[in-house]
User: What shape does this take?
Amino acid sequence: GAVALAVPPAKPLPFDEAGTTSMTRFLEEKVRRDPGDADAYNRLAVSYLQTLRETGSVQYLELASRASRASLASVPAVRNSAGLTVLALSEFSAHAFSAARDHALQLVRLDPTKSYPYAILGDALLELGEYDQAAAAYKQMERRSNGISTDTETRAARLAQLRGDGAGAARHYSNALVLALNLSSPPRETVAWCHWQLGETAFSAGDYEAAETHDRDALTVFPGYHRALASLGRVRAARGDLAGAVAQYEEAIRHLPDPTYVAALGDLYQLAGRPEDAAAQYDLVDRIGHLSAVNGELYNRQLALFHADHGINTEAAYGKAKREYGVRRDIYGADALAWTALKAHRFGEARRAIAQALRLGTRDAKLLYHAAMISRAVGEAGPARDYLRRALDLNPQFDPLQAMSARKALVPRE
Assistant: This one.
């Protein structure tokens, strides 16, 4: 995977929505008639998980979880590794990463020669912040795969990203994309996701023009893809097109009211001098977070960061971040803890947590900005300036409001 494969121009990929829906309905009817049909339950769970990936709609997560449990209730895991697989994937999607890890380990024991249990294991370990173990699991996955694949390359890209190797991440995502396109019927969502990840990688390096191209490519492949719509909004904001940014986020939210998108739209309304509209979006962020227990789990980190960014309920935000970091010790969890601890005036804890967040050398302007503001709060003016410069050199418009704060903080106080 050292050489980047050449990415062909993006083009729309066929998607048989009616066929997919009728297959799902057929399987739902099948399990209604025969509740002991584990195979039908497994195929149904796969279908729900795919729809979840495409739409982001949480209802499909609950349906997938229910179908996988029904499958395992009728045929135990020892004879039903497919049922255990969809359960582990559902748990991963629900952010129950420890459960997903444990079930992946069970799959490794049941199917030791297969690569897929190691993929699930590595993904869960990555989210838990066990980076060396995750890399080891991915090595085992590669060893059992026939050469590189979309699955092995996307994992290599994620590790490269975390370790601060943006060029390596872009190379692996390009390879993943080409390999997906070379399949007999390229999966539309996977191809769009790879384009989108290339856009995210370009954005994090401050290359907004390339980011916009990749996001547009994702939308060519998969019109209405919510991730690319929102990312294009962020790119438009970075390029100074406030009206275009607002329009993109409004469209993204029509597809999926994700709290991150809603909060970003609120910030843009604020910048556009529409404080009432901004307040309505901020209010909606909290309402979405409390819609269901699943939403609370899925959006816990986004809500904590949103509150810290806007100085709302800072104690509660800190409590949320601290509880999550107790079980999910990845670098972004450490960052959320650091940022919320700073806003709750727990400076010692903020310093310890930000050191954990930066431990892999990840090149992310938001992490560097948080490190700067923590250094500044504890009176370390030199390191604070250094972090601010690094953040703004890397990605000068990393966030519409926070990048402004970063530039203000660089100006020496009178």
About this structure: The mean pLDDT is 97. The first helix runs from residue 17 to 33. The chain is about 75% helix and 0% strand. Residues 263 and 306 are 7 Å apart (CA to CA).
